Amino acid sequence: MNLRDKIISNAKKHNKKIVLPESMEERTLKAASWILQNEVGQIVLIGKKDKIHEEAKSLGIKNIDKAEIIDPDNFDKLELYAEIMEEMRKSKGCTKDVAIGLLKNPLYLATMMVKHGDADGEVAGAMNATGDVLRPAFQFVKTLPGISVVSSTFIMQLDNESIGEKGLFFFSDCAVNPDPNEQELAEIAVSTAKTARDIAEIEPRVAMLSFSTKGSAEHALVTKVRNATIIARKLDPNLLIDGEFQLDAAIIESIGKKKAPNSYIAGRANVLIFPDLQSGNIGYKLVQRMAGALTIGPILQGMAKPISDLSRGATVEEIVEVIAITANQAAGI
């Protein structure tokens, strides 16, 4: 079973409820239809029922009636959600009336469904900017305990099964944080390890990457990675993590044994934590384009409940994958 099939299979097993606020978006509706047809999970759409059915009919979608459809103008929990929002944001001037106004925006309503437990996760971004998707999530869902930073990971699957987890790696952070400090880098490592467990069901072996391996170079950038490794161990004492490593020492066993003979992680890493966004973004694209790796992501991590942001150019297949991944994340919380 390949990784995509495994993700779909796990989502199907957990049968989580995912809310899609962009209910009139063509690719989103087609992805929702596929999820429902293949019984991968439950779907909630936000909008006017008649308009959603009309749009689905025009696209040749016949099973959208299997989705739960919520109309923001006629939702029995609107007052309850507004009270929760007012309480959480009253210091920022959020009154109940302001909250009700915000809840007419499907992105806010979807976020509050996740916050209140009426949905297990949210997927949006096919027609909304990342900032618009994440703003209500930051305000109301917030981050996991002990985690202050939301980050991203990419799943990278290579044909070479002699490295990583039979060719499988998680790369972080390649899409969100330009220059994480020591604490943030440590939190990214802990978050990525959790994502690896939740989605791929593997035991993460985390390598903190640098241009130095165990003291081969001295520089402030190297010190940041070393200190982040120490902090990550304190955040999760059971985490298999080590660093600092050059890339070859992290993933090639023969080199790892030479450069870091006393490290359990050296040469065996399946989770790679890049020191900044420049190196992470360059690194994943090199592996994707030059090595032909199957790439899935970015996957957001660190939120208290899963909120996933799509690329506005996402295909139907990619939206299906993100819905399934979000369901896997929900199962792990």
Major β-sheet strand ordering: 8-7-9-6-5-10
Helix content: 40-55%
Number of strands: 11
Gross morphology is globular
| Assigned CATH class of the largest domain | Alpha Beta
Strand content: 15-25%
Count of helix runs:
13
Distance between the termini: 25 Å
Please describe the biggest sheet, giving its number of strands, its sense, and whether it closes into a barrel.
Answer: 6 strands, mixed
Look up the CATH topology of the largest domain. Rossmann fold
Task: Write up this protein.
By secondary structure, the protein is α/β, with parallel strands linked by helices. The chain has two domains: 3-142 and 303-331, Rossmann fold (3-Layer(aba) Sandwich); 151-296, Rossmann fold. Helices cover 46% and strands 16% of the residues. The chain has helices at residues 3-14, 26-37, 49-58, 78-89, 96-103, 106-116, 130-141, 182-200, 220-235, 247-251, 253-259, 277-290, 316-331, and strands spanning 17-20, 42-46, 68-70, 121-124, 151-157, 168-172, 205-209, 240-245, 271-273, 294-301, 307-309. The strands form two sheets. Strands 8-7-9-6-5-10 form a six-stranded mixed beta sheet, sandwiched between helices. A five-stranded parallel beta sheet has the order 3-2-1-4-11, with helices on both faces. Helix 3 links the parallel strand 2 and strand 3. Helix 2 crosses helix 13 (316-331). The protein is globular, with a radius of gyration of 21 Å. The two termini are 25 Å apart. The model has no long low-confidence stretch (mean pLDDT 94).
